[in-house]
C-alpha cells in the first residue's frame, strides 16, 4: 500500500476506535444532558472516578477490568441517584438550575478530582489485561486489542441501552420526561422518579466508560478535563437526545482528531474538533445528526 | 441623566454609596493598601496582593456578562490568556512596555468578546457556555502552535528590577493591577445602576419579554460581551511580567475559568460588590492553602465552598447580608 | 370606529417543519377598533401574534403597520413603532420590582429621552391605570395571577402602543376579575388604543369585540359581526362538534 494511504487508513481506523471510546464517555451525557436537560459538567470526572474504581477492584480481586466495571455499575447507579436527589432538592425544584445547578456540578467535579488526588496521588494509574499487548495486523493496518475490546464493548453497551430506551415502557418514559412531564403525570408516572432512575443510568454509564478508558490509556485524576469539551461537543453534534447521533458524532470526532494528528501533528487535533463544534453551534445548533427542533 | 437618580429607582439600592463616595472610598482604600504593604516591607506581600487583585478584576469582568446578562462564560481562561499573550507578542515584536500592552490587550479582548457576542445572538444558555469553552480550547491550540510566542515551551519575560518611584517591580505590578481592578469594579458598578444594567437584567430574566418591551437585546448583549472580554484580557495582560515566564498551560489554566465563575457566585452574582467579596475571600484562601497545604487542597476548597453556596445561599454573600426575601 | 387601516396582514403563512401553522392569513384592523380573535387551541392564534411581534419570521406574506412594512424589523423596533403585546403566560422580569418591570419599556421605548425620574413617574402612572400602584415595590413572585396579568398589560401600555394585542389576558381569572380586566381594556380603547383580544372566555369576547375573527387550523374561517360569526355553522362545528 502507498505509505500515505496506509497512514490515512490507519488514522481512520484508530480514529474509529478512539471514537467508540468517546461514544462511551458521551453516551451517559446524552441521557443526562440530552434527555433530562441536566447539565452534568462533572460527567467526565465521574468517568475518571470509574476508571480509578476499576483499577482498585481489578487489581485487588485480579479480575478483568471490563468485568470489574460491570460489577461496579450498580454502585455508580446509586451514586447517580444520590446526586440527582440532591440536585433536584436544591435546584430543579426551585427552578434554579441554570446558573446555580451548573455551579453545583462544577463544584462536584472539583471535589471528585481533588478527592482522587488526595487518595491516590497525582500519579498515573493503568491496568494490564491479558489481551492488552496483542495487535492484529491486516497488511499495513493495525488493530490493537487494547483499543478494539473496550471500543466494541462500549458500542455493544450503547446498543443495548438504545434498545432498552426504545422498547420498554420505562425507557420511553425516560425519552419523554424532559419534553412532557405533564403527560407522564397523567399516566401516573412520577417524573422525578423517572429522572432519578435515568440519571443513575447515566452515571453508571460513566463508570463503565471509565473501565473502557483505563484499558486504553493510563489515567490520572485530571484526565477528565480533556474530555469535558469533547463529550459536550459530541452530544450537541449528535442532536442531544439521540444515542445513535451521539455514536456517529463520537466516531466523526475521533476520526477528525486522528487524521489531523497523523498529518499535521497531534498539537493541532483539538483545534479541528472544537473548530467544528463552534461551526456547528453557530450554524446548526440542533446538531449535525439531529432533527430540527 | 445621572447614575445616582437612576439608582434611586431601585427599592434596594446596590449598597448605599454615591458616585463620589465610591471613587473617594476606592482612592483611600488604594492609598491605605499601598501604605500598609510598604510598612510590611515584604516582597511576597505584593505578589500575593497582585494574585488577589487579578481575580477581583477577572471575577468582575465575568460578572458583567454572567451575572448581569445571564450568559455563562466557561472560557474565562481563554480571554485571560489572550491578554497575557498580547503582552508577550507585542513585547517581543516591538519591545513595548507593559502599559501600552494592557491597552492593546483591552482592544483585542474586546474584539474577541464581540465575536463571542455574535455567538450569543444565536446561542442560549448552556450552548453558549459550551461554545465559550470550545473557543478557549481553540485559542489554546493556536497558542501552542504559535512558535513566535514560544509555543508549548513557553516564553521568558525579562522584567526590570524596579520602576521608580516604586520600591520594587512587585509594587509596580501591584499598583497597576490595583488601578485596573478599581476601574473594572467602577465600570461594573456604573452599569448596574444604569439604563444598560436595567436592560441586561430584563434580558437575563426573560429575553423574549425584554424584546417585546422594546429592549434592543442584541445590542445590549454585544456591549456586555465586549466589555466583559476586554476586562478579562486586561486582567491577564500583566501575567507574564508577574510570573516572569509564560506557557500555555499556565495562561489557559482551568483554575482561572473555575474561579471566574465561582467567585461571583459565592460573593453574589449580578451585584458589583459580590465578585469583589468572592474574589478576595477565595483568592486569599487559595493563596493561604497553596503556601500551607497544597495546590490540590485549594481547588478542593473552591469546590466545597462552591457547592455549599450554590445549594444553600444562591444569592451569595451579598444576598446573605441583605437578607432579601427575593431570589 | 372606522378610522384608517392601522394593521394589514397580507397572506401571512408560517410552517413548522411540515406542519402548516398559518395558511395565507389576510386581515385588516382599523385604528381604534376592538377586534376579537378566537379559535381552538393550535389554530394559529399565538403563531399569528408571534409573527406580528417579530419573534419569528413568517414564511409568506407580510404585515403592514401604520403604512410601514414590518418585514425584517427586530421585535424591539416593532415595539418602538407602537406595537405591544402581552404574553399568554405572564413573563415578568423576576429580579426587578413591579415598578422597575414597567420602567424597562419606558427607558428603552420610543421616548427614550425620558429622564429616569420621568420614567419612574410614568411607570407609576401606568401601574395606576391597571390598579397595581399599591404593589409597585413588590416583586413579581409575590403577585397573584390576576396581578401578574395586570403587570403584563402595564408593561405593554408603557410603550404607549397604538395597537395592543392581549393574548389570553383572562385565562384562569374569576368572574369578577374578568369583569375588571374587561373594564381596563375598554378604558384603554376609549383612550385611543386599538386592541386585538385573543381569548377563550367567550362571554368576554362577545362583550368586548366590535368585530370577530375565527382561526381554525391556520385558516381564517370567519370575519365579521360577533353575533353573526358566532351563529355560523362552521364556527360552531369548530368549537363544539368534531
Automatic annotation (TrEMBL), chain A:
GO terms for biological process: amino acid transport. It is found in: Cell membrane. Keywords: Amino-acid transport, Cell membrane, Membrane, Transmembrane, Transmembrane helix, Transport. The keyword Cell membrane applies. The chain crosses the membrane at residues 6-31, 38-60, 66-87, 99-122, 147-165, 197-219, 231-256, 263-283. GO terms for cellular component: plasma membrane. Pfam families: BPD_transp_2 (PF02653). PANTHER family: AMINO ACID ABC TRANSPORTER PERMEASE PROTEIN, BRANCHED-CHAIN AMINO ACID TRANSPORT SYSTEM PERMEASE PROTEIN LIVH. Belongs to the binding-protein-dependent transport system permease family. LivHM subfamily. This is Amino acid/amide ABC transporter membrane protein 1 (HAAT family). It comes from Humitalea rosea.
TrEMBL record, chain B:
It is a multi-pass membrane protein. The chain crosses the membrane at residues 20-40, 47-65, 71-90, 102-121, 127-148, 169-191, 222-239, 251-273, 293-318. This is Amino acid/amide ABC transporter membrane protein 2 (HAAT family). One of its GO terms (molecular function) is branched-chain amino acid transmembrane transporter activity. Keywords: Cell membrane, Membrane, Transmembrane, Transmembrane helix. It comes from the Bacteria. Its main location: membrane. One of its GO terms (cellular component) is plasma membrane. It comes from Humitalea rosea. It is found in: Cell membrane. InterPro entries: ABC_transp_permease (IPR001851), LivM-like (IPR043428). The keyword Cell membrane applies. Coiled coil: none annotated. The keyword Zinc-finger does not apply.
From TrEMBL, chain C:
Pfam families: ABC_tran. Residues 7-242 form the ABC transporter domain. GO terms for molecular function: ATP binding; ATP hydrolysis activity. SUPFAM superfamilies: P-loop containing nucleoside triphosphate hydrolases (SSF52540). CDD domains: ABC_Mj1267_LivG_branched (cd03219). The keyword Nucleotide-binding applies. Keywords: ATP-binding, Nucleotide-binding, Transport. Signal peptide: none annotated. InterPro entries: AAA+_ATPase (IPR003593), ABC_AA/LPS_Transport (IPR051120), ABC_transporter-like_ATP-bd (IPR003439), P-loop_NTPase (IPR027417). GO terms for cellular component: plasma membrane. This is Amino acid/amide ABC transporter ATP-binding protein 1 (HAAT family). It comes from Humitalea rosea.
Amino acid at each position: 500500500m502507498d505509505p500515505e494511504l496506509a497512514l490515512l487508513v490507519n488514522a481512520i481506523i484508530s480514529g474509529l476506535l478512539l471514537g467508540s471510546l468517546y461514544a462511551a464517555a458521551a453516551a451517559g451525557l446524552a441521557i443526562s444532558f440530552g434527555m433530562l436537560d441536566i447539565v452534568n459538567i462533572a460527567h467526565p470526572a465521574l468517568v475518571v472516578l470509574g476508571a480509578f474504581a476499576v483499577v482498585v477492584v481489578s487489581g485487588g480481586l485480579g479480575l478483568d477490568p471490563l468485568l470489574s466495571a460491570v460489577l461496579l455499575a450498580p454502585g455508580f447507579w446509586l451514586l447517580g441517584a444520590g446526586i440527582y436527589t440532591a440536585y433536584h432538592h436544591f435546584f430543579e425544584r426551585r427552578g434554579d438550575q441554570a446558573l446555580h445547578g451548573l455551579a453545583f456540578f462544577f463544584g462536584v467535579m472539583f471535589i471528585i478530582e481533588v478527592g482522587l488526588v488526595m487518595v491516590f496521588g497525582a500519579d498515573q494509574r493503568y491496568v494490564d489485561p491479558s489481551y492488552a499487548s496483542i495487535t492484529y495486523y491486516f497488511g499495513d493496518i493495525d488493530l490493537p486489542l487494547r483499543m478494539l475490546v473496550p471500543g466494541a464493548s462500549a458500542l455493544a453497551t450503547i446498543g443495548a441501552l438504545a434498545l432498552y430506551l426504545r422498547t420498554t415502557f420505562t425507557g420511553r418514559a425516560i425519552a419523554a420526561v424532559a419534553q412532557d412531564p405533564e403527560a407522564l403525570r397523567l399516566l401516573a408516572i412520577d417524573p422525578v422518579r423517572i429522572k432519578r432512575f435515568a440519571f443513575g443510568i447515566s452515571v453508571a454509564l460513566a463508570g463503565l466508560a471509565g473501565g473502557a478508558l483505563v484499558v486504553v490509556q493510563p489515567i490520572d485524576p485530571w484526565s477528565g478535563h480533556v474530555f469535558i469539551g469533547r463529550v459536550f461537543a459530541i452530544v450537541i453534534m449528535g442532536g442531544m437526545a439521540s444515542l445513535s447521533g451521539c455514536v456517529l458524532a463520537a466516531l466523526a470526532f475521533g476520526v477528525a482528531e486522528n487524521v489531523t494528528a497523523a498529518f499535521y501533528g497531534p498539537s493541532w487535533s483539538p483545534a479541528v474538533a472544537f473548530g467544528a463544534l463552534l461551526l456547528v453551534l453557530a450554524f446548526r445548533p440542533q446538531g449535525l445528526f439531529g432533527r430540527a427542533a | 441623566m445621572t447614575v445616582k437618580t437612576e439608582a434611586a429607582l431601585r427599592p434596594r439600592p446596590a449598597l448605599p454609596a454615591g458616585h463620589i463616595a465610591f471613587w473617594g472610598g476606592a482612592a483611600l482604600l488604594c492609598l491605605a493598601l499601598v501604605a500598609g504593604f510598604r510598612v510590611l516591607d515584604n516582597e511576597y506581600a505584593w505578589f500575593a496582593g497582585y494574585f488577589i487583585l487579578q481575580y477581583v478584576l477577572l471575577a468582575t469582568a465575568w460578572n458583567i456578562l454572567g451575572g448581569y446578562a445571564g450568559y455563562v462564560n466557561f472560557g474565562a481562561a481563554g480571554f485571560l490568556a489572550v491578554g497575557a499573550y498580547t503582552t508577550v507578542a507585542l513585547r517581543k515584536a516591538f519591545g513595548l512596555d507593559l502599559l501600552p500592552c494592557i491597552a492593546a490587550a483591552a482592544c483585542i479582548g474586546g474584539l474577541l468578546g464581540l465575536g463571542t457576542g455574535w455567538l450569543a445572538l444565536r446561542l442560549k444558555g448552556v450552548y453558549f457556555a459550551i461554545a465559550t469553552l470550545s473557543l478557549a480550547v481553540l485559542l489554546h491550540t493556536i497558542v501552542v502552535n504559535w512558535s513566535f510566542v514560544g509555543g508549548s515551551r513557553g516564553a521568558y519575560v525579562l522584567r526590570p528590577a524596579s520602576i521608580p518611584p516604586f520600591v520594587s517591580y512587585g509594587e509596580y505590578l501591584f499598583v497597576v493591577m490595583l488601578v485596573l481592578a478599581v476601574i473594572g469594579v467602577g465600570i461594573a458598578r456604573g452599569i448596574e445602576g444604569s439604563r444598560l444594567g436595567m436592560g441586561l437584567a430584563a434580558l437575563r430574566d426573560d429575553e423574549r419579554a425584554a424584546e417585546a418591551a422594546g429592549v434592543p437585546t442584541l445590542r445590549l448583549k454585544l456591549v456586555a460581551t465586549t466589555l466583559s472580554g476586554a476586562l478579562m484580557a486586561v486582567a491577564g495582560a500583566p501575567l507574564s511580567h508577574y510570573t516572569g515566564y509564560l506557557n500555555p498551560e499556565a495562561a489557559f489554566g482551568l483554575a482561572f475559568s473555575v474561579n471566574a465563575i465561582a467567585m461571583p457566585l459565592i460573593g453574589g452574582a449580578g451585584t458589583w460588590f459580590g465578585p469583589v467579596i468572592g474574589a478576595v475571600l477565595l483568592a486569599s484562601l487559595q493563596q493561604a492553602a497553596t503556601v500551607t497545604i497544597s495546590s490540590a487542597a485549594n481547588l478542593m476548597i473552591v469546590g466545597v465552598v462552591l457547592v455549599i453556596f450554590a445549594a444553600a445561599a444562591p444569592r451569595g454573600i451579598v444576598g446573605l447580608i441583605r437578607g432579601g426575601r427575593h431570589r | 370606529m372606522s378610522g384608517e387601516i392601522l394593521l394589514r396582514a397580507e397572506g401571512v403563512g408560517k410552517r413548522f417543519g411540515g406542519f402548516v401553522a398559518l395558511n395565507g392569513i389576510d386581515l385588516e384592523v382599523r385604528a381604534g377598533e376592538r377586534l376579537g380573535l378566537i379559535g381552538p387551541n393550535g389554530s394559529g392564534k399565538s403563531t399569528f401574534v408571534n409573527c406580528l411581534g417579530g419573534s419569528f419570521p413568517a414564511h409568506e406574506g407580510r404585515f403592514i403597520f401604520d403604512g410601514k412594512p414590518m418585514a425584517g424589523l427586530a421585535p424591539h423596533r416593532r415595539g418602538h413603532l407602537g406595537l405591544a403585546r402581552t404574553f399568554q403566560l405572564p413573563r415578568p422580569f423576576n429580579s426587578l420590582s413591579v415598578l422597575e418591570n414597567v420602567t424597562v419599556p419606558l427607558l428603552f421605548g420610543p421616548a427614550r429621552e425620558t429622564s429616569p425620574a420621568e420614567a419612574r413617574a410614568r411607570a407609576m402612572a401606568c401601574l395606576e391605570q391597571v390598579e397595581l400602584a399599591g404593589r409597585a415595590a413588590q416583586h413579581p413572585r409575590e403577585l397573584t395571577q390576576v396581578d401578574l396579568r395586570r403587570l403584563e398589560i402595564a408593561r405593554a401600555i408603557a410603550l404607549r402602543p397604538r395597537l395592543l394585542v392581549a393574548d389570553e389576558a383572562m385565562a384562569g381569572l374569576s368572574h369578577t376579575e374578568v369583569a375588571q380586566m374587561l373594564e381596563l381594556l375598554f378604558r384603554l380603547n376609549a383612550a385611543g388604543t386599538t386592541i386585538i383580544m385573543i381569548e377563550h372566555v367567550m362571554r368576554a369576547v362577545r362583550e368586548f369585540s366590535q368585530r370577530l375573527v375565527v382561526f381554525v387550523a391556520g385558516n381564517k374561517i370567519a370575519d365579521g359581526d360577533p353575533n353573526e360569526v358566532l351563529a355560523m355553522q362552521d364556527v360552531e362545528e369548530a368549537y363544539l362538534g368534531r
